Amino acid sequence: MKTLENIFLFFCLFISISSAAQDVPNISDPRLDFKLPGANGDSIQLSSLKGKVVLLDFWASWCVPCRFSNKQLVKLYADYKDQGLEILSVSLDDKKKSWERAMKKDKLSWLQVNDDGGPNALSAVKWQVHAIPSSFLIDKNGNVVAVDLEKQELENKIRELLGL
């Protein structure tokens, strides 16, 4: 009887590990993909960034912690953009002028899109963003490998993904 219990437990463990491995969010998944207008008027589709190391960043011009985070991202992007890092920032601003002023003031030079629905924006709902700033680190295969890493931890993981 003990052997049968052990086999059953092993089987349950195997199933849970197998299903967990399949649940890794991927930007190719239509449930997570989105296409939004960029700062220059062109639309950017998230899934088009597959093949790159991407930091998907949700923020808004009125969010003080977001603006502080932008300062750190400016340095991070400058240090790693030539090695292959891409940042896609999704502004949840409902006022385009506020978004544009914040981008200019914070000197944001990476990909920027706007989903003007605030906390109810479709992209934020798809990614289950409940607070901002919120970020997702995505590997070259399009898989989310980390969520809301900060400072040195984020930089270390980016270096690892870029093979540096």
Task: Write the topology of this structure.
Blueprint: H1 2-22, E1 35-37, E2 43-45, E3 53-59, H2 64-80, E4 85-91, H3 96-106, E5 111-114, H4 122-126, E6 134-138, E7 144-147, H5 151-162
Parallel strand pairs: 3-4, 4-5
Antiparallel strand pairs: 1-2, 3-6, 6-7
Structure write-up:
This protein has one domain (25-162): 3-Layer(aba) Sandwich (Glutaredoxin), CATH 3.40.30. It is built from five helices and seven strands. Helix content is 40%, strand content 20%. The protein has 164 residues and is an alpha/beta fold. The chain is globular. Helix 3 links the parallel strand 4 and strand 5. A five-stranded mixed β-sheet has the order 5-4-3-6-7. A two-stranded antiparallel sheet has the order 1-2.
Give keywords.
164 residues, 7 strands, 40% helix, alpha/beta, globular
Rg: 19 Å
Structural class: alpha/beta
Low-confidence residue ranges? 2-21
Fraction of residues in helix: 40-55%
Q: How much beta, percentage-wise?
A: 15-25%
Q: Would you count the extended β strands for me?
A: 7
Number of domains: 1
Spatial gap, N to C terminus: 52 Å
- What is the CATH superfamily label? Glutaredoxin
Short description:
This protein has one domain (25-162): Glutaredoxin (3-Layer(aba) Sandwich). Helix content is 40%, strand content 20%.
